[in-house]
Amino acid sequence: MITRDDITGIVLCGGRGTRMGGAEKALQLLHGRPLVAHVLERLQPQVVAVVISANREAPAYATYRVAVVQDLADDQGPLGGLQSALRHVHTPWFFCCPGDAPFLDPQLVESLARHVDQPDITIVYPYDGEHHQHLFLLGRTALAASLDLYLASGQRSVHGFIDTHQALCVPLPGITESFTNINTGIELAAANQVPASRG
């Protein structure tokens, strides 16, 4: 059984925030606190360390006293953030999630980890009953080399990368809220209307 001490959390905050008017999404306020603060509050008890991938506002993220890294190359998408973060991971496993998912389930990592009972499994990710949630994945840190090759070949698809590995999809229909991303100002305003105790 994989334990908390085997897993480093990677929070992906390197997007351009196009649908948020170019703003740094993970630093937008939900109930007076940045979205990333909500993510970290829920993620840190589930992992032994955290690395944030951020291409802008690095000093703001550094205030959370975790490692903050920038992409090794431009325009690589979420996998570019994962690639750079993996160079700072010292555990055999990592769990990654977006920095704009403030309702992350506090048992999500354990729910995925308990399904790793075969040595050939390299990636585990959830299915919420409607969508495969590829950006909320648990993976072996050793796949960093294959990620380098995948990106070097010009490919960017997270789904495509997962398909190149022995991956396991875990149905978790009871925690669909965990995968809610705050992508727009309208979505942020709506989330701020919900009581802070949500989730």
UniProtKB/TrEMBL annotation:
Cofactor(s) needed: Mg(2+)
GO biological process, one term: Mo-molybdopterin cofactor biosynthetic process
Keywords from the UniProt entry: Cytoplasm, GTP-binding, Magnesium, Metal-binding, Molybdenum cofactor biosynthesis, Nucleotide-binding, Transferase
Superkingdom assignment: Bacteria
Entry's Gene Ontology cellular component terms: cytoplasm
InterPro entries, alphabetized: MobA-like_NTP_Trfase, Molybde_CF_guanTrfase, Nucleotide-diphossugar_trans
Major localisation: cytoplasm
Residues at which Mg(2+) binds: 100
Record-linked CDD domains: MobA (cd02503)
Gene Ontology MF term list: GTP binding; metal ion binding; molybdenum cofactor guanylyltransferase activity
Reaction(s) the record says it catalyses: Mo-molybdopterin + GTP + H(+) = Mo-molybdopterin guanine dinucleotide + diphosphate
Residue span(s) of domain MobA-like NTP transferase: 9-158
Enzyme class name: transferase
Compartments reported by the entry: Cytoplasm
Binding-site positions, GTP: 12-14, 25, 71, 100
EC number: 2.7.7.77
Family membership: Belongs to the MobA family.
Domain text: The N-terminal domain determines nucleotide recognition and specific binding, while the C-terminal domain determines the specific binding to the target protein.
General function of this protein: Transfers a GMP moiety from GTP to Mo-molybdopterin (Mo-MPT) cofactor (Moco or molybdenum cofactor) to form Mo-molybdopterin guanine dinucleotide (Mo-MGD) cofactor.
Protein name as annotated: Probable molybdenum cofactor guanylyltransferase
